[in-house]
Amino acid sequence: MNREIFAFNTQVRRALEPLRKATVAGEPLAPIWIGIRNGLVNLREPLVFMNDLAQGRECAAGASLRRFMVNSTLGVGGLFDVAKSYGIDAHDNDFGRTLAVFGVPDGPYLMLPVLGPADLRATAGIAAEYFADPVDVGLRRVGASAAGWSIAALDVTERHFEAAPDMEKLERTSLDGYAALRSAYRQYLVEDLKDDNCPAVLQPIAGASSATENGN
Question: Hey, CA dihedral for 63, 69, 73, 77, is it positive or negative?
């Protein structure tokens, strides 16, 4: 079943390839897609903040909150990543990671339709996010469920775009793309759960520029 879903996801990725190529730097849709990507990241910040707190990562939670506040105001609702200019880089977090921190085992490897590689724990986390994501909950309460589904579709598309180069390399260098992806996912999972680095704290733009010039 996993291999059949992997083949289906490969076809989905290839179908999206013309659109992805139209969004790379220098192409007509690139500026539009950058704004969409920034907006998607900003809409996810409340969920990231919740999971940072649940995992006891106060510093990371503070960075998530600052990013959301800065980008939602100065960044015109998140279309511009102003927070990055202040030295606050984006980071991701989800309920799957929170479950891992609380000792829930990962379970069997799963290939989810459209969404890609996961495991039982990550799948449970995805389901939990549907009921707990503040943005989704708010949209449903005001009768804007269609907007929520549109945001989810754009988010999945962006994730396909981001993974496309690595997936193409995997196909070129592996005899069995599915087995290679499964191994890569397991390795990524181990390293990702070890990563507890805190994103940079808010600092003046001039200070951020100076740090960049010094290679920090």
Answer: positive
